[in-house]
Amino acid sequence: MSKSPATREFARRERPLSPHLTVYRPPITMTMSIIHRITGGALYFGTLLVAIWLMATASSQATFDWVNWALGTWLGRLILFGYTWALMHHMLGGVRHLVWDTGAGLQKHTASKIAWATLAGSILLTLLIWIAGYMARGA
């Protein structure tokens, strides 16, 4: 700590505390912003899985079979489901930001509605993609 009298005086004063997460409820727009950043990072790892799968298709039959088996397990499918959701959520978040760049939807209540729509839309699109995939696979 500094030896300056001004600093010591400032350190002795009562400082206001920021509201803790148990007191303050983050708004949906903040939550969606954080999730948008997290999904952006997750897409890097998911895209590595896609690249591994593509390399396996160009490799031997045994490698391709092993990668298909790994992605076909319950854990592999869960990871692919999460990747699909992250892709849809990040895409819709990008569309939301594109709308905001035009100056539309910046009012507090409108931004909140768009944030909720982003979440609902990403879940709906993910489910539709997986249902369509299972229907195409069974046909």
UniProtKB/TrEMBL annotation:
Tell me where it resides: Membrane
Pfam families given in the database record: Sdh_cyt
Q: What highest taxon heads this organism's lineage?
A: Bacteria
**Which residues are listed for heme binding in this entry?**
H90
UniProt entry keywords in alphabetical sequence: Heme, Iron, Membrane, Metal-binding, Transmembrane, Transmembrane helix
The answer to whether UniProt assigns keyword Metal-binding to this entry is: yes
* Transmembrane parts of this sequence: 34-54, 66-88, 114-136
List the SUPFAM superfamilies hit by this protein, alphabetically: Fumarate reductase respiratory complex transmembrane subunits (SSF81343)
**What's an example GO BP annotation here?**
tricarboxylic acid cycle
Q: How is the cofactor bound?
A: The heme is bound between the two transmembrane subunits.
Q: Which family does it belong to?
A: Belongs to the cytochrome b560 family.
Subunit and interaction comment: Part of an enzyme complex containing four subunits: a flavoprotein, an iron-sulfur protein, plus two membrane-anchoring proteins, SdhC and SdhD. The complex can form homotrimers.
Record's function text: Membrane-anchoring subunit of succinate dehydrogenase (SDH).
PANTHER family for the chain = SUCCINATE DEHYDROGENASE CYTOCHROME B560 SUBUNIT (PTHR10978), SUCCINATE DEHYDROGENASE CYTOCHROME B560 SUBUNIT, MITOCHONDRIAL (PTHR10978:SF5)
**Name this protein carries in UniProt:** Succinate dehydrogenase cytochrome b556 subunit
Organism in which the protein naturally occurs: Mesorhizobium kowhaii
Task: Please name the taxonomic classification of the source.
Answer: Bacteria, Pseudomonadati, Pseudomonadota, Alphaproteobacteria, Hyphomicrobiales
